[in-house]
Amino acid sequence: TQLAAKADQTAMTTALNAKADTATVNTQLAAKADQTAMTTALNAKADTATVNTQLAAKADQTSVDTAMQSALKFNTSKLVWAANHTYEIGEVARFEFTGDLYVAIKAISGSGNSAPSIDTEHWAFLLNGNPTANTNKKVIFTTQSTHTGALGGINGAHAICQQEADASDHAPAGTYKALLSIGGSHARDVISNSYSYHKVDGTMVADKGIINIFSVSNLLSPLNMNAQGQTVSGPVWTNTKSTGYVDNYSACYGFTGAFQNDPYSFNGPKVGDSSDITFSGWFSKTNQNCSLSARLYCVQQ
Predict the structure, then answer these.
(1) Alpha-carbon span 241 to 250, nearest angstrom
(2) Mean pLDDT of 39-59
(3) pTM higher than 0.90
């Protein structure tokens, strides 16, 4: 009876065959993650503090509403920038000289404001544009560089102006010439009654070209700004009479030499003072010899 209750060989063999052998056990164990892998995986998870920090950095509804209220604003009556306009935060203005768009980042009162391209405290650049076609406004600036009378003639003077204009972020693209008289080239030839003239920050200097540059007592603003919108001062070569024509025909040997004693201009050619607005000041303040240095006035054509 006892023996009959025991499993026979066949049953035992079948039962043993159903058990996993050592190789299978090892394979299964190898597929499990060890402690190092589990620790690494757990460390990669964000803890509660990190999650809270990330959520706190997201904008709440109030911040979103504030941002929406500061969205870009377009007022057609003020879209073209002017120094006498007031602007709210978010208002967009177009700077006519370059065509670029700017957005006000601070409120701006309407009294003698500088152009958006210069006034980075109140304006932020928004979008590149194109200058207005056939604009009746032109730029005039005073060079940053100073030179003796050895300018390289009238073409050398023009080249100096062009170089400073091309290097500027504020002067509109175009051709620039020196407001200087040499031989048969007269300063009045680079000014036109068809245009008003402005510094690169938009400030008007003269509203009717030759009429108001050579024929009235004062400029509207001194020509004391370079092509980068920075203030400059000091003498400026002109060699020009009040009529706009050449004063000394061969001064500084046609502005090719830096001689202290110029036989063609005993007292030296005329120079102006860039800080003065009177004609006798800004254009013909005094005379100086060709060995000394002075700036140039440069006019957009």
Answers:
(1) 14
(2) 61
(3) no
Taking alpha carbons only, the member of 251, 252, 257, 295 closest to residue 273 is 295
CA nearest neighbour of 140 among 173, 189, 177, 111: 177
Give 204-227 pLDDT, tens digit per residue: 999 887 777 777 668 999 999 999
Q: Which amino acid is at 279?
A: F
**43 class by beta-carbon count within 10 Å (0-12 exposed, 13-18 middle, 19+ buried):** exposed
Q: Output the average pLDDT for the chain.
A: 82
